[in-house]
Design a protein that fits this description.
This protein is an alpha/beta fold. It has two domains: 50-222, Protein tyrosine phosphatase superfamily (Protein-Tyrosine Phosphatase, Chain A), CATH 3.90.190; 230-349, Immunoglobulins (Immunoglobulin-like), CATH 2.60.40.10. The chain has helices at residues 26-50, 70-80, 96-107, 125-137, 152-164, 169-173, 193-206, 212-222, and strands at residues 55-58, 62-65, 84-87, 111-114, 142-145, 230-235, 239-240, 246-254, 260-262, 270-278, 283-289, 294-296, 301-308, 314-324, 333-334, 343-349. The strands form four sheets. Strands 7, 10, 11, 14, 15 and 16 form a six-stranded mixed beta sheet that branches. A five-stranded mixed beta sheet has the order 1-2-5-3-4, with helices on both faces. It is elongated and about 105 Å long. The termini are far apart.
Length: 350
Amino acid sequence: MFSTRMDAPDTPPQVPAPAPSRRVTRRGLFKLAGAGVALAATAEAARVLFGSNEHTVIPGKVYRSAQLKQQKLERVIAEKHIRTVMNLRGCCPHMDWYQADARATHARQICQEDLTFSAKRYPPAPEIVRLVEVFDRAEYPVLIHCARGSDRTGLACGMAVLLLTDGGIDAARRQLHPRYGHVAAVGRTGVLDEFFDAYEAKLAATGEAHTPDRFRKWATTEYCPGPFRAGLSVVGPTAVPVGVGFAITVRAKNLSEQPWTFSTGGSGGVHLTYSLHDSRGALAYRGKAGFLARTVAPGEFLDLAAGFPPVKPGKYTLNADLIDAQPIDLLDTAFAQYGSEALMATLTAA
């Protein structure tokens, strides 16, 4: 008897799939290496731009960082045996960050030096002198910081290289580098690089070589912050009439090594700002002058008419200074902020 059922054929045995190769190709190695480099670069960029931005400038002697929180600052002080903290943001006792600095340095019984610099303006000559003095008398090691540890800190660390090592101007410039977050081509921070450019130009003009003593002399007695140095004086009598408007001629002599550019507009260029106070110190008038298209070369002078309304009899004090005018008045910078001497004169109305 024949069966009508037909059995299905046996399933053929499964052939195991080959194990995936564990060999890493050269291309794969390059990808892994590239990813590792990118990750490390990203982490370092974050540390520089948003973190502590800590670096060694001179091993065992000079260190740099961004603004640190109190606990972090105390930890760095202990680890590096810091004896002096140099704060380049100025004395700001009402600010939290300043109080944190003060508490940390007090807790560790070390020195704190407060200096005032801007990341977007020429370093003021008086502050440069103070900074050299601090480097000369500080107890080391020192930690130098500003807000981000990039611009002002780079300037001060470059000066440390010139004063405390055998490094030259190129070594000093490397402290103002994108590696630390300083990008001269963006914004106005490139003005700090001009400090070292000016020193290099001085050496080239005199045929001298850099030495720490030569830099110290230049920084403390010869440095001029760009075009911001003027000699101001009153030309003519200081006796003025009563009951009618009058003008005082202020002579502005360019004592810098760069030309001044006066302009007709209210923003941009150099202008004269002046004020008049009575014998009690009350403001009688405030004005501006010098709205003309003129270039004043180094060594030249320009006479400017400062106009006033009628005043009562008495003694008055005239204060005047040149300003670097900006589109926003709050950003105007007086020459006196760079160390130039403002004008103060007594006028007699009779």
